[in-house]
């Protein structure tokens, strides 16, 4: 099983809502990533979890709150978002998140629209 | 700071043509990835390279570490190959992405 799954596929939320994005992998990977991708732009790294601990936060606003409840699951909690946060949110995983080179496997993404 | 440049930005081909997409980068890296993204879709990893050449079906990827350059080739292109192809270099934990090449293969 080389699949990373993400739910929901699409999400529309108001600026006062609280919602969560979910990512799951069953490959035994110990590193998981959140990326944000605006239209026609490359992905931008947001967070990296390594062994269930947050190892990298790329100066992401606090309205985005990641959580890694176990080694297979990664959540991104959303609160008080702005319309400019509308984007495709991609999750990825790799065997490890350190300096060693491991292939990253990407999920299909959640298309988020903030109204 | 690593800069990843891809060329061309857009490429239109006829079905059956041989396609080449180029990627150059500016600093030493531990690996280079070629990724595929269909419009509105998620990303599929095609190759991860540290040296030499890899082949998977009609896709071939090469890397020249000394020249800091990689190429992705598609033989016998097909309309289903139409997608954005993204080169990404890896240094430590982080991927640095190129801007992508939009490939359109016409029947």
Report on the structure:
The complex is a heterodimer of chains A (115) and B (107). By secondary structure, chain A is mostly beta strands. Chain A has strands at 4-7, 10-13, 18-25, 31-37, 44-50, 53-57, 64-70, 73-79, 87-94, 105-106, 110-114. The mean pLDDT of chain A is 92. In chain B, strands 2, 4, 5, 9, 10 and 11 form a six-stranded mixed β-sheet that branches. In chain B, strands 1-3-8-7-6 form a five-stranded antiparallel β-sheet, with no helix packed on it. The model of chain B has no long low-confidence stretch (mean pLDDT 93). The interface between A and B is medium-sized, with 26 and 23 residues.
List the main descriptive attributes of the protein structure presented here.
heterodimer; A: four-stranded antiparallel beta sheet; 0% helix; B: 107 residues; mainly beta; six-stranded mixed beta sheet; five-stranded antiparallel beta sheet
